[in-house]
Amino acid sequence: MSERLVVVGGDAAGMSAAAQARRLRDAGDLEIVVLEQGQDVSYSACGIPYWVGGQVGERSDLIARTPAEFAARGITVRTGTRAEAIDLAAGQVHTAGGERLGYDRLVVATGGRPVRPPIPGLDADGVHGVHRLDDGAAIRTAIDGLPGDRPRRGLVLGGGYIGLEMAEALQRRGLEVTVVLADPLPMQLLDADMGERVCAAMTAMGMTVHTDQAVREVLVDASGRACGVRTDVGSYDADLVVLGLGMGPEARLAADAGLALGPTGAVDVDRSQRCRDHPEVFAAGDCAQTFHRVTGEVAHVALGTHANKQGRVAGSVIGGRPARFAGVLGTALTKVGDLEVARTGLCTTQAEEAGFAYRTDTIEGTTRAGYYPGAEQVAVKLISESGSGQLLGAQVVGGPGAGKRIDVLATAIWAGMTAEDLAGSDLSYAPPFSPTYDPVVVAARKVSRTEQG
Amino acid sequence: MSERLVVVGGDAAGMSAAAQARRLRDAGDLEIVVLEQGQDVSYSACGIPYWVGGQVGERSDLIARTPAEFAARGITVRTGTRAEAIDLAAGQVHTAGGERLGYDRLVVATGGRPVRPPIPGLDADGVHGVHRLDDGAAIRTAIDGLPGDRPRRGLVLGGGYIGLEMAEALQRRGLEVTVVLADPLPMQLLDADMGERVCAAMTAMGMTVHTDQAVREVLVDASGRACGVRTDVGSYDADLVVLGLGMGPEARLAADAGLALGPTGAVDVDRSQRCRDHPEVFAAGDCAQTFHRVTGEVAHVALGTHANKQGRVAGSVIGGRPARFAGVLGTALTKVGDLEVARTGLCTTQAEEAGFAYRTDTIEGTTRAGYYPGAEQVAVKLISESGSGQLLGAQVVGGPGAGKRIDVLATAIWAGMTAEDLAGSDLSYAPPFSPTYDPVVVAARKVSRTEQG
Fold it and tell me: Which segments constitute the Pyridine nucleotide-disulphide oxidoreductase dimerisation domain (chains A, B) (predicted)?
């Protein structure tokens, strides 16, 4: 007797769940229907800044798989179909079209919701989010403008990675760029000493960065278009405003249905992505709460990598194979100009909140042997537990080749390694790729050496 | 009462030992004398191919610290001073100048000895090793040649990383390059399927690669200069011959003194780099035997990174602080043209020899999001224990950005992670740096998925 899996939301988490469930159960055993309110499924929102910036040519480049490709694998994708309600008692999803679609298993993968503070003017024309491909298309259209009426000044609200990436994209397209942030520095998940490097690089690129300024109003001209923002400190003109204020969970559908949310505001799930009181319902991706690998505490980190993996876990369980999500470290990587910016695990604020006795060690090194052409500066900061030396977090900021080194540190933290373990480890060396001691090892040695007194 | 530490050999291991001992014990407590037969200490032999190739301008660029800099730190370096014998009973080193220098502690850091098979002509003019900076200088002089008499054809014997790097260096300097190797493929510490990629890249660069051909003779012209080589298959003309046949331990001084060698022919030491029967004597670096982290078996891997760390361990122990060397994975990284080539842990031959039931999984991916400019192909091969999924070894071959990914795999193997652990880990993602799933994770997932049946 065939069951039906309904997936609400057709991006990373939803499509990973559908694909994995299909791998494990064939169409005669499990019908799979995905409801997606937009027109695209399985798209790379992370690629939008590069599409706007011109490094990526076509919208279609950002689409990993089309509904037709999923159909060929026995997964029905209904785009333009919004789920309006979930009836947990009846086991039905109500669509905006009035349909009541029964399910045996349900995956809630409604994704994230861009943070939009309640300030006047935020809905005006000329204010753009960076969430869906349509947002990217709108920004591209705005930049291309009418002949003689192209925007000249771009203003980005927020200094997280989307803010940074959009600031660079606008600058690449010839706009004067101003970045306004409420925080004292960009990249709040970096410690201040590392965030200062990012801020300095943005300024050196010719961007204007206004920090510590919460936006109070988006200024709107007579035609109803955004023409700037006002903060407590001043007003800044703009022809185009982009919102990069972060991403919260889009959990309204789940909450309205009576599914429990966690303290992060995201759907509460167990480690198999299952809603605790409704074992037939799963949530995955940006709408779902998860947990931090180091602290064990609940966390919400909106990122495509986790969405993919969590969707896959849900799909496995639905497919009959036990699976557990292994947690997040909050690893993140971006670049602004040539400066690569990466972090993983706990920053000092997080380590303190989590109750760790911790220490920090920062070193300066080079990406290649100092004598090899293209050797660039890199700073590595480690946060480790005092006494035990267990690695808790790491930050890397530096020139080309610096950023991906965060993966070594993420792997070490994942495995529970101490700084001394990492200091002894056998990393690769060749002059075009690193100094004899890779900067991550130099940092680990610094911890290890001083821990020994 | 002051003690004296004598260090024989002033490169990576010797100078690391001296520096670390000095950090822990001051000059009033420990006199430190380093005997170095050459003129340079603390130099980067690994940089020689890039000095020859022109990426590095000056010999001095390859020297990390001069004898004067060590002297300023209270370390006496006597260059041009060859140790001829060690008298263990008397606790003395005999120098070539007839001096008998007493020691309380001794570090043997005599380094490696380039493999030189017993074939006629190998000592002829025009045949160059790649061991000391003087070798690099000689090759540079030969390439610059007399006006109108510059060498046109370069021949490299051996296809390990020094062979590859020297082949590229000669080609950069305008020579036609032929590489002759006794093995069926270059980079014998790669599996054949990965080695084939390297071979293909060399050929695509315009190098001629002759495999499976042991050299029987270096051909010498009437003036006594090397003019080619003869193998079982054919003869190949050359104006310049470079030896890249690998590096064995230079352990004659130790052996002659009666220090025990291990089955690798290198000095047998415990994990604190101490000679078992002579606790006042240590050996470190290319002359010393070490052990493999995965197999626990003895190993000899001549590499600057290990030399530095082992020297540091010896220096710590001499300085009164317990320390242990943590083993090697045989991590190695190089490039030929734009192809980056990296390996760590056990290759299939080594896994088989070590008695593991193993499986291999290879995936093809890209270094960046497929839609991002500069995304290059990368192949990742994992060797893992059947059943447990424990990672045993890894190989990465691909375009720019591929190679340093080996460090994630080396860290995972170091920590004893399984493929499933790695598949779940939180590695960084951003389109300019990787696809959503980094290729190393894709490879780990492949193992993990198929292990689950």
Answer: 334-435
Is residue B335 predicted with pLDDT exceeding 50? yes
CA distance A425 to A440: 10
> Which residues have a Cβ under 8 Å from the Cβ of B198 and sit 6 or more positions away?
B164, B185, B186, B187, B190, B336, B339, B341, B397
Domains and CATH numbers, chain A: 3-113+248-318 (3.50.50.60), 127-245 (3.50.50.60), 332-451 (3.50.50.60)
- The arithmetic mean of pLDDT across residues B256-281, rounded, is 98
Under an 8 A CB cutoff, do B331 and A304 touch?
no
**Helices (H) and strands (E) in chain A — how many of each?**
12, 26
- Note the pLDDT of residue A450: 75
For an interface test with A, the pick among B290, B367, B407 (most A C-beta atoms closer than 10 Å) comes out as: B407
Which residue in A55, A403, A430 is closest to B333 by CB distance?
Answer: A430
Catalytic residues of B: 46
Helix (H) or strand (E) holding A447: helix A439-451
The full DSSP string for A357-410 is: -EEEEEEEEESS-TTSTT--EEEEEEEEETTT-BEEEEEEEESTTSGGGHHHHH
Residue whose pair of structure tokens reads 């803010």 in the numeric block:
A163
The secondary element (H helix, E strand) that includes residue A226 is strand A226-231
Comparing C-alpha atoms, which of B385, B395, B396 is closest to residue B420? B385
Q: In terms of CA atoms, which chain B residue is nearest residue A326? A: B424
pLDDT in tens, B21-47: 999 999 999 999 999 999 999 989 999
Tell me which of A290, A380, A427, A428 to substitute to probe the interface with B (most B C-beta atoms closer than 10 Å): A428
pLDDT score, position A150: 86
Pick from A47, A330, A408: CB nearest B369: A47
How many angstroms separate the Cα of B416 from the Cα of each of A131, A413, B19, B191, B382?
A: 39, 13, 32, 22, 14
Question: By the 8 A CB rule, do A167 and A241 touch?
Answer: no
Q: Does residue B392 register a pLDDT over 90? A: yes
Residue in A closest to B448 by C-alpha: A323
Sort out which chain A residues have CB atoms less than 8 A from B426's CB and list them: 293, 305-306, 327-331, 344, 410, 414
Nearest chain B residue to A322, by CA: B452
| pLDDT of amino acid A250 | 97
Residue A432 DSSP code = T
Average pLDDT on B264-292 reads: 98
Digit-coded pLDDT (tens) for A276-326: 999 999 999 999 999 999 999 999 999 999 999 999 999 999 999 999 999
Mutation target among B371, B451, B452 for the A interface, most CBs of A within 10 A: B371
- The mean pLDDT values, 10 residues at a time, for chain A of 453 residues are 94 97 96 96 93 95 94 97 98 97 98 93 95 95 84 95 96 97 95 97 98 96 96 96 95 98 98 97 98 97 95 98 97 96 98 98 97 97 97 98 98 98 97 96 92 57
What is the complex's ipTM, to 2 decimals? 0.95
Phi-psi sector, A151: left (phi>0), alpha (psi -120 to 50), beta: beta
Provide the strand spans (E) within A111-192. 112-114, 127-128, 153-157, 176-180
Question: Which chain A residue shows the shortest CA-CA distance from B424?
Answer: A326
Q: What is the pLDDT of residue A453?
A: 46
Cβ contacts of residue B125 below 8 Å, gap of 6+? B223, B224, B225, B226
Contacts of A319 in chain B (CB under 8 A): none
CA distance A47 to chain B (A): 6
Q: Is B326–A46 a contact, with Cβ atoms under 8 angstroms apart?
A: no
CB contact under 8 A, B415 and A410: no
B319: tokens are 């300085």
Q: List the single residue in B61, B293, B331 with the smallest CB-CB distance to A428.
A: B331
**Helix or strand run (H / E) with residue B336:** strand B332-336
Secondary structure class of A414 (helix, strand, coil): helix
